[in-house]
Amino acid sequence: MNDLQNAYRHAAYFAPAPDSAAWRLGTQWLGRCPHSGQELAQPLPAGWDADAFALRTREPRRYGWHATLKAPFALGGDGSTVFLRTGFSDLAAGVRSPFTLALTLAQVGNFLALVPREPCAPLQALADACVRQLHPFAASLPPAEIARRSRGGLSARQQEMLAQWGYPYVLQDFAFHMTLTDTLDGLSEAQTAQLVQHATHWFAPLLSDGLQIDAVSWFAEDAPGADFRWVERFGFAP
Question: Which domains are delineated in the chain?
Answer without folding.
Answer: 2-138+174-235 (3.90.1140.10)
